[in-house]
Amino acid sequence: MKSTLLSVAFLFLGLQINAQLQSPEEFLGYEIGEQFSRHADVVNYFKHVAQNSPLVNYHTYGKTNERRPLTYAVISSKENLQNLDEIRNNHLGNAGISEIEAEADKAIVWLSYNVHGNEASSTEASMKTLYELITEKKDWLENTVVIIDPSVNPDGRDRYANWYNQVKAEPYSPLQAAAEHHEPWPGGRPNHYLFDLNRDWAWATQVETQQRLKIYNQWMPHIHVDFHEQGINEPYYFAPAAEPYHEIITPFQKEFQTQIGKNHAEYFDEEGWLFFTKERFDLLYPSYGDTYPTYMGAIGMTYEQAGHGRAGLGINTDEGYELTLKDRVAHHHTTGISTVEVATKNVKALNNEFEKYFDNSDLEYKSYAVKGNPDKIVSLKDLLDKHEIQYNNAASGRVNGFNYTEGKKGRFNADENTVVINTNQPKGKMVNVLFEPSTYLSDSLTYDITAWSLPYAYGLEAVASTRQVSTEAKSQTSEIKNTANPSGAGYISKWNAMQDAQFLAELLKEDIKVRFTEIPFKSEGKDFDRGSLIITKSDNRKNDDFDQTVVNIANKHQRELVAATTSFAGSGPDFGSPEVKIINPPKVAVLKGEGISSLNYGEIWYFFEQDLNYPLTSINTNYFKNVDLSQFDVLIMPEGSYSDILDEDTLKNIKDWVRDGGKLIAIGRAVGTFAGKDDFNIKENKSETKDTTAVANLIPYAQRERESAKDMITGSIVKTRLDKTHPMAFGYDDTYFSLKLSNSSYKLLEDGYNVSYIHEPEIVSGFAGSSAIKNLENSLVFGEERMGSGSIIYMVDNPLFRAFWENGKLFFANSVFFVNNNKYRL
After folding, report:
1. From residue 325, how far is each of 34, 176, 189, 231 by CA, in Å?
2. Residue 336: phi, psi to the nearest 5?
3. Phi and psi dihedrals of 493, rounded to 5?
4. What is the per-residue burial (b if ≥16 Cβ within 10 Å, else e) of 630-643?
5. Which of 191, 294, 534, 664 could make an S-S bridge to 300, C-beta 3.0–4.6 Å?
6. What single-letter DSSP state applies at residue 310?
7. Which residue from 738, 822, 736, 751 is spatially nearest to 784, judged by alpha carbons?
8. pLDDT tens across 59-97, in order?
């Protein structure tokens, strides 16, 4: 009798819980697709479901820059959730990531929604998918664990949703001309710092990515789907992906994509919905939400729904029908459910093939040995730690293999700073992708950059070895603890890494006057190269806490100070030499707004606030012509189109400001703004071509895109020469590997300083068309032109691209702090 009563009680409790569980429509008070939900409402709904369903656990894994929660739900059967740690550890053991040896018998599916904030239909779909899984598809959860991240980019989503909810008509207007279909700059796509989070998986520069990877590495799913949107006239894209596929991708990964795509097609055909596959979206660049999981063993896929930020609640397409938010939600909901369905039917195959993926015995390169500046090594280790990739110290001795610097077989001698990353570890294939000297391309037409090798990106020497390099345990580097020397002349610190620039930035913010040397010198028996910082007691004699302040800041940044007993140098310039210049704490401004690349502006904004931690003033283009530039020392012009921004009067104001001592930094397409204009020395480097119009017109329609590849450069790495005696290049050697993002080419400056340039083009990795390569001969990469008392700095290549090209950042810091910067602002 007692047992019967207990069973009745549990049944009653279960019915009560289900009675309390509400659908998205019941909870929100409107049908999904009738409005754009705010992020807070989505979070509240997921909390509600977790509180009222035994099939859902809901967690917060971090916060955005704007303090919105980053969350994920784990959905499975009640029994599975009670044994979740065991399931997860068995799964990781299957990949060799944990030491647990037990059968993995569950499928792990991760669904990521709304990585681009204005591709907002997918977050709405996530609520419908969650509800259907725990109500109508509960049987699937017996052998499957589903993880849902309802909004990877909450800041961008709310930027879009809040704007749209403010401007839409009531009822909404489907006319393309309506204001609600035209987002203002910068749009909702990026995150707070205007980064594209779908390009940040591998580089992990943004807080959203950094926090998400901690959870992703705890799960390493079998399947990962990234939900997106595309143009309003392109119905729906799903796997299989387009070529090129990276060669590391296995046949099973390709085949299973097709299997999932065919399952989607059945549902879409039944409803009469159009779709396409095998086009546009390739699997090469490693930092996408489909490729990164793929290189971590998953079936990684992008799903693209028509709509994007233009579509709103409904829009008339060019094909004669209205595309509604309800339509978009239905399509994303269908592919999400279909993906889980395929997973639940293929649990054994997924687990068997997942185990096989982590066998790395067939990889050509067994080890990557990397050495160089210790600070750059630390930065590389930080990245590897984010991905939980293992590394060790090299044993002393010679390492043979492909030498990255020489671009051919070679060797180097391992030293105490040499790090070895072996591929005989679970994530060995990802190591191969991130470190490979040159990526194999089965097709030159790709969706993104085609080169990213970390030794080039971090400015390190490296050898890729076909043999496993021996390693040994070494003691950890001891903490730097400087002490004050009040009786000395001051302190000296080296200059060759971003950590040194961060140290300088804080000194300047604390009103410590700092000098730098333009000529090498010797002091206290030690050699100091160009750019070395000299912090003298003489310059700071009014600061009673000078010594302790400098020491505290140096210890904070782990910068080693050399206490100079005298300003009399052993060789080279003394501290009072004209070649030892004081640094003006520059007041820096940057342009933003219509006409400016939001991505490049975001990279600059992020660089100053997060990398450098130095004040930056943003000026909007819509009032720039009325700004008094005399209050700034540096003006940065990001990538952009300036034809509507720089009229004749505004350009004259800029030239007058530069002549009076201002410093203008132009990046990428902004350089072209000045090409060929009066008083500017920069000129386009146009190739000499014959009149081929008649021949060109005979190229068949279907071949035009591929023929145009001859003129393209799609993110390739090119070797450049450096004038390391110029302040912009302080801290570098005489060679720099630049990430070239376009075929833009400018002549060497006839009256100026060609700091980084290409003589005979040498593409070390990535795709560049034959015509584009030829046009790079004798072209400028970084240069300075003097105008009156000031300077224009040309950065043809963007050294801050996606904040991952670490070796370019010091050029930017040098340009701000060192180049033509010895006029002190009182």
Report:
1. 7, 15, 17, 14
2. -65, -50
3. -140, 145
4. eebbbbbbbbbebe
5. 294
6. H
7. 751
8. 999 999 999 999 999 999 999 999 999 999 999 999 999
- Write the DSSP assignment of 187-215 as a string of letters: -SSS-TT---GGG-TTT--SHHHHHHHHH
Q: Pairing relation of β-strands 144-149 and 107-112?
A: parallel
Question: Mean of the per-residue pLDDT values for the chain?
Answer: 93
Within 8 A by CB and 6+ apart from 177, the residues are: none
**Sole residue written with tokens 């399947």:** 223
Question: Do the Cβ atoms of 57 and 81 come closer than 8 Å?
Answer: yes
In the chain, DSSP finds a helix count (H) and a strand count (E) of 25, 34
CATH of domain 588-684+709-817: 3.40.50.880
**Confidence at 447, pLDDT banded by 50, 70, 90:** low
pLDDT of 445 > 70? The answer is no
Distance (Å, rounded) from C-alpha 598 to C-alpha 116?
Answer: 14
Token pair belonging to 369: 């040995």
Measured from the Cβ of residue 16, the count of other Cβ atoms closer than 10 Å reads 11
CA distance 801 to 600: 7
Cβ(798)–Cβ(668) below 8 Å: yes
Tokens of 81: 């959730």
Between 262 and 475, the more confident residue is 262
Residue 171: cis peptide before it, omega within 30 degrees of 0: yes
Is the Cα dihedral 471, 475, 479, 484 positive or negative?
negative
Characterize the bridge pairing of strands 397-403 and 515-517: unpaired
| H-helix segments, 478-567 | 498-509, 546-556
Q: Among 48-57, 136-145, 642-651, 698-707, which is the least confidently predicted range?
A: 698-707
Asked if residues 191 and 209 have their Cβ atoms less than 8 Å apart, the reply is no
E strands in 711-789: 716-722, 735-740, 753-758, 763-765, 779-787
The pLDDT tens digits for 746-766 are: 999 999 999 999 999 999 999
Helices of type H across 179-321: 207-219, 251-271, 291-295, 308-311
781 neighbors 729 (Cβ within 8 angstroms) = no
Domain boundaries, the chain: 46-355, 367-465, 490-582, 588-684+709-817
pTM over 0.90: yes
Say which CATH topology domain 490-582 has: Alpha-Beta Plaits (3.30.70)
Return the percentage of the chain with pLDDT > 70, whole number. Answer: 94
Range of weakest confidence among 163-177, 655-669, 685-699, 803-817: 685-699
E strand segments, 551-649: 562-564, 580-582, 588-592, 617-620, 634-637
Q: Please choose, from the candidates 243, 337, 341, 260, the residue with its C-alpha nearest in 3D space to the C-alpha of residue 298.
A: 260
Q: Is the pLDDT of residue 139 over 60?
A: yes
| Homologous superfamily (CATH) for 46-355 | Zn peptidases (3.40.630.10)
User: What's the farthest any 2 CA atoms get from each other in the chain?
Assistant: 100
Collect all residues with Cβ–Cβ distance below 8 Å to 466 and sequence separation of at least 6. 364, 365, 366, 401
Residue 105 pLDDT level (bands cut at 50, 70, 90): very high
β-bridge partners, 746:
684
